[in-house]
Specification:
The complex is a heterodimer of chains A (341) and B (277). Chain A has 341 residues and is of the alpha+beta class. Chain A folds into two domains: 200 residues, no CATH class; 123 residues, no CATH class. Chain A contains eleven helices and twelve strands. Chain A has an eight-stranded mixed sheet. A four-stranded antiparallel sheet of chain A has the order 5-4-12-11, with no helix packed on it. In chain A, strand 11 and strand 12 form a beta hairpin. The two termini of chain A are 42 Å apart. Chain B is of the alpha/beta class. Chain B has two domains: 90 residues, Elongation Factor Tu (Ef-tu), domain 3 (Beta Barrel); 123 residues, Rossmann fold. Helix content of chain B is 19%, strand content 31%. In chain B, helix 3 links the parallel strand 8 and strand 9. In chain B, helix 4 packs parallel to helix 5. The longest helix of chain B has 14 residues. The chains are: A alpha+beta (341), B alpha/beta (277). The interface between A and B is large, with 58 and 46 residues. Bound molecules: flavin-adenine dinucleotide (FAD), iron/sulfur cluster (SF4) (2 copies) and FE2/S2 (inorganic) cluster (FES). The site of FE2/S2 (inorganic) cluster has 12 residues of chain B, from loops.
Chain lengths: 341, 277
């Protein structure tokens, strides 16, 4: 394990930024958000960024390819470029876990090369949480906020930052920082982890359980009458899907520039009424079906296809952002039966 | 440029022949600019065709994989992309990617069986690929029955091929029907589900149903009445699609993605899906 005192963090950042683009959460008027680090920017202490970290690998919009059209002929232009190496610094445990959930979709055969390219070039430096808040329920999904996953895992105490490599990529990054860090044992970190675990056990959502849900439970939950009541006030605004680190639905759209055609991919939302609309019909006629789709996907369908892994990481973003205060916790409490009384 | 293959990037296809089937269905022949098939497929699989700037849309590959020269698509005019495709002339380039989906189990579950194909309207498109595959490997299958119906005589897709080729094959019985009487028609008149019941097939076959949802519903009920089991009856499903590879999140029914786990399903498998299609 390596360590650096907090007053020297700037040295650490500029050392990383010498060779790679470095991104980290910084505080803004509208909350924390990931920005490219440059001299003078300070690492935010906020728990979570307003937007999740999924943008780094699955951006809100991206150009997939271009076309040149001439008479009856079409030329397809592959606009993909090898991504540059980059480091995302300070990713929280929940967001780190979201990458695994997205990987299982985008890297499944046939892999999405846009995603894979960025994933291969990104190094994830995670940051252990010290003071999880009342909207946090990562524990429900067996995520340990006090010791996250990642290529490098960081723990911040009152005076120092502790760094530990967890992968070859992480090892390489840490080795390149040996000049500015010093060797240390893990005792300060162990101490912190213990305190944080105690704090976590006292969180309001600490006992929330997902045990009632999971793989192969479609029949059990699909026709539950509670969906109507739960979705009653849902505006179909899609906010919950856009802030969610694990939501992965997308649309593909063409844009005619006058000189050619650009094909884009952009985030889409299963909460939108036209998402599944066809000339022959509409399988999800009302917001009840769309709402059910979002939560069934996270709690049942995704686990069915992914060895029981849930597609929610308990980051709490949808809890704080939904305009009608509806969210996955309410859904789990309502439908989860005895385990969540 | 990166060197990895990207499933969303299509290849260029050239339309080399356009056949007008019905007032709103045309069949397009597609090859690559150097005259080859864009890729190999199995019956029941689909491809994304696109005209850049207008959009992409999913279509069944209606030609059989045994056709070594080209691929064909029978396309019904209904919106932006399909309208554009209908306005094309021979020589037009389009883009194509695929093949997508799980094919019919032609070499496993179907092998050695009598086959009963039942289609309505444009529903013949996915079936034509299987029918011609079975005709090509004639000795691998038993008796073949084809029941096909449309609104009118003019709305029967592939009419010429049905009359000139299919109905002349030994061991192939074609039963055509149209919804309403027409002076120039001396064949059967009536809806497909009723016709199937009238014909009263023996139940030692594999049946495949494709067509409008309402036709599928009543025909399936009829087959079950005749004594068929759901494990003997197949269909294809259609949901809105964007990616074709189970990633854009659009075409799921419960935990199954129609683009990847379908579009071919057996009715006992459909029973396992939630009622949302
Ligand atoms: C697996 C699969 C196989 C198909 N095979 C064939 C085929 O062999 N021949 C054929 O003619 N058609 C087939 N279709 C339907 C075809 O994809 C749609 O008709 C086409 O996408 C409509 O595109 P458009 O741009 O012309 O219409 P749009 O302008 O997009 O829309 C017109 C209307 O069609 C709806 N629509 C959009 N996408 C679809 C869709 N995927 N299915 C149905 N309606 C849609 C729109 O919501 C709108 O109401 C198939 C669809 C699927 C999913
Ligand atoms: S649950 Fe809330 S955030 Fe999500 S679509 Fe409905 S109103 Fe919007
Ligand atoms: S569903 Fe809500 S709590 Fe769960 S990962 Fe998405 S935004 Fe976070
Ligand atoms: S079309 Fe994208 S998931 Fe099926």
């Amino acid at each position: 394990m390596r360590k650096i005192s907090l007053d020297k963090l700037n040295q650490l950042f500029s050392k990383i930024a010498e060779t790679q683009t470095l991104y980290m959460p910084v505080d803004t008027k509208t909350g924390a958000r990931y920005e490219k680090w440059e001299e003078g920017k300070e690492l935010s202490d906020a728990l979570n960024t307003v937007r999740s970290a999924k943008d780094f690998f699955f951006p809100q919009t991206e150009n997939l390819m271009d076309f040149k059209m001439e008479g009856k002929n079409i030329e397809i232009i592959d606009t993909r470029n090898e991504a540059e190496d980059f480091v995302i610094f300070g990713v929280r445990a929940c967001d780190v876990k979201s990458f695994e959930i997205l990987d299982r979709v985008f890297l499944a055969d046939p892999a999405d090369s846009y995603y894979e390219n960025r994933r291969n070039h990104g190094t994830i430096v995670s940051m252990a949480c010290t003071r999880p808040v009342e909207t946090c329920f990562c524990q429900t999904f067996d995520i340990d906020a006090a010791s996250p996953e990642g290529d490098v895992v960081c723990h911040k105490t009152d005076d120092a930052l502790y760094l530990e490599a967890k992968s070859d990529k992480g090892e390489a990054l840490l080795n390149s920082l040996n000049d500015v860090t010093e060797d240390t044992d893990g005792s300060a970190v162990d101490e912190q982890v213990k305190t944080v675990h105690e704090r976590m056990s006292r969180l309001p959502l600490a006992s929330l359980s997902a045990d009632a849900f999971g793989a192969d439970k479609t029949k059990e939950f699909f026709d539950r009458p509670e969906w109507a009541e739960l979705s009653q006030s849902c505006l179909g605004c899609g906010t919950c899907t856009f802030v969610c680190p694990t939501c992965q639905c997308y649309d593909i759209k063409d844009f005619n520039t006058g000189h050619g055609v650009k094909r884009f991919r952009c985030w889409d939302s299963c909460m939108y009424s036209n998402f599944t609309k066809m000339s022959a019909g509409q399988p999800r006629l009302t917001q009840v079906e769309r709402f059910r789709q979002r939560f069934m996907h996270k709690l049942v369908y995704y686990p069915t296809n992914n060895d029981g892994l849930f597609s929610c990481v308990g980051c709490g973003r949808c809890l704080s952002k939904c305009p009608i205060q509806m969210n996955i916790v309410k859904v789990m409490k309502k439908l989860g039966g005895k385990s969540n009384d | 440029m990166i060197d990895i293959k990207e499933p969303l990037i299509p290849v260029v296809g050239v339309v080399t022949d356009i056949r007008i089937d019905t007032p709103d269905v045309k069949t397009f022949r597609v090859v690559t600019p150097d005259g080859k098939k864009a890729f190999e497929h199995m019956p029941g699989q689909c491809a994304m065709l696109s005209i850049p700037g207008v959009g992409e849309a999913m279509f069944s590959i209606t030609s059989s994989p045994t056709n070594t020269e080209f691929m064909e698509f029978s396309i019904k005019k209904c919106g932006c992309v399909t309208q554009w495709l209908h306005s094309m002339e021979v020589g037009q380039q389009i883009t194509i990617r695929g093949p997508y989906g799980h094919p019919f189990p032609v070499d496993t579950e179907f092998a050695g069986h009598d086959m009963l194909f039942i289609a309505g309207g444009i529903g013949l498109a996915p079936l034509r690929s299987v029918i011609n595959y079975c005709r090509h490997y004639r000795d691998r299958y038993g008796k073949i029955d084809i029941v096909y119906g449309s609104r009118s005589m003019q709305d029967l897709v592939d009419y010429k091929e049905i009359i000139d080729e299919w109905s002349k094959d030994a061991g192939v019985n074609v039963h055509l029907t149209i919804d309403r009487e027409q002076p120039e028609w001396d064949g059967h008149v009536g809806f497909v589900p009723n016709y199937v019941k009238e014909l009263g097939f023996s139940t030692d076959k594999i049946a495949i149903l494709c067509g409008p949802p309402i036709m599928i519903k009543f025909t399936l009920a009829g087959l079950l009445e005749l004594g068929f089991d759901k494990t003997q009856v197949y269909t294809t499903m259609e949901l809105r699609m964007k990616c074709g590879i189970g990633k854009c999140g659009r075409c799921n029914i419960g935990s199954k993605y129609v683009c990847k786990d379908g579009p071919v399903f057996r009715f006992d498998e459909i029973d396992e899906l939630p009622d949302e299609y």
